[in-house]
Specification:
By secondary structure, the chain is mainly α. The chain has 22 helices and no strands. The longest helix has 41 residues.
Length: 391
């Protein structure tokens, strides 16, 4: 009887009053001990109110039903397809939406709907993949910042591919501690490309010079990321470098001259197709023929072989040195030794000597910078002690 009176009254009541009455009826559905007849009548009334011309009525219903697993499923599904002001609470909170529903809503909804789904606390990998594939930049940003989202590696890569040129996306992803190294490197590539285009457009650098600087910065980043990688991450990074055409002789030689023997070994395993044990045996065989055969199988230019031989000899003589100032850097002593040996060889090509000279200049500048930073740090540490003594 009460529901009949409600239906009769709601036809002529003002929109605000209808919304409040609808909110009360929806709450009664969830928490009141209605008889079977009253429950059926209440559901019919709520279904009728889905066609109410005022969004305030449907919004009131959505706000009550959004967080409940006991809400009427047909009504929740209808509300999820309504205009954003109505649908957003359902999209963000309703436990009644299944994965297939959310994937479809991501594909057909606007950016607001995608963002609401991206904020959910129970977001599975399939829905994350849908947002990564077709979601707006705003939705991708919500997804990145959602600690409950489960993203597969290919979803991270797809976000980088589609939105990596946007600063907000890059900053949010680079701030993540558990971002896969290959994805982090792809972001760095996006940033490097954007900066190169900017300086070329402003005519600050020629396109060739900008491209060379980008390649050098990218190679340094790759080696630093590989140094910090663990387990399968290094292998994934090497595979990414090969797939994107970055696993070059210059990068591999830089890795060796930086003391990153793991990256050097894995790169040759990746390029040669040989087992790691076999690569290790060929690398550290003191005979030059074995190394040349391995480098040839890996597809590296024969003109670079003298540098690799000299670098391996220097590694055996000097020993391993880890990171400097928190990063893997070219080791000046090793670079200069390799350069000196190659300059004395009349058969060494000029392009290789140019590369080694650039490495030598870079390593000298880096060593000087670290030295000066340490001097400044020592002064800062000493100053308080002097002040204490003077007092």
């Amino acid at each position: 009887m009460i529901v009949r009176q409600f239906i009769s009254w709601v036809r002529t009541a003002p929109a605000g009053e209808r919304a409040e009455a609808t909110r009360s009826l929806a709450r009664a559905w969830l928490i009141s001990n209605l008889s079977e007849d009253d429950r059926a009548a209440a559901e019919g009334a709520l279904l009728m109110l889905l066609d109410d011309p005022s969004p305030l009525v449907r919004q009131a219903m959505a706000e009550v039903f959004a967080g409940s697993a006991e809400a009427p499923a047909p009504i929740v599904r209808a509300l999820s397809l309504d205009q954003p002001s109505v649908a957003l609470p359902i999209l963000e909170h309703s436990p009644l939406l299944i994965d297939a529903d959310m994937v479809d809503l991501v594909a057909t909804g606007n950016s607001e709907a995608q963002c609401a789904i991206a904020r959910r606390t129970d977001l599975p990998a399939s829905v994350c993949a849908a947002i990564a594939e077709v979601g707006s930049p705003a939705a991708a940003l919500e997804l990145i910042e959602n600690p409950h989202a489960v993203l597969a590696p290919f979803s991270w890569d797809r976000i980088v591919e589609r939105h990596g040129h946007l600063a907000a996306i890059r900053e949010s992803m680079l701030a993540l501690d558990d971002l896969p190294p290959a994805t982090r490197l792809a972001l760095i590539e996006k940033l490097s490309g954007t900066l190169a285009q900017f300086v070329v457009a402003r005519r600050w650098l020629s396109s060739d010079r900008a491209e060379r600087i980008v390649v050098e910065a990218r190679d340094r980043s790759a080696i630093n990321l590989a140094t910090r990688s663990r387990g399968d991450e290094t292998g994934q990074l090497v595979a990414h470098l090969r797939a994107t055409g970055q696993l070059t002789a210059g990068l591999i030689l830089r890795a060796l001259l930086s003391g990153n023997l793991e990256l050097f070994d894995r790169a040759l395993v990746e390029l040669s197709g040989l087992p790691s044990q076999r690569v290790a045996a060929l690398l550290y065989d003191r005979g030059g023929a074995s190394l040349d055969a391995l480098l040839t199988r890996a597809g590296l230019p024969a003109s670079t072989f003298p540098a690799f031989r000299a670098a391996l000899d220097a590694t055996n003589e000097i020993g391993f040195v880890g990171m400097v100032d928190g990063a893997a850097r070219l080791r000046r002593r090793m670079v200069e030794r390799v350069l000196t040996r190659c300059e004395a060889d009349p058969d060494v090509s000029e392009p290789l000597l140019i590369l080694l000279r650039r490495f030598a200049t870079e390593s000298a500048r880096e060593e000087a910078r670290v030295f000066c930073d340490q001097l400044v740090a020592d002064v800062v540490d000493i100053a308080p002690e002097h002040q204490r003594i003077a007092a």
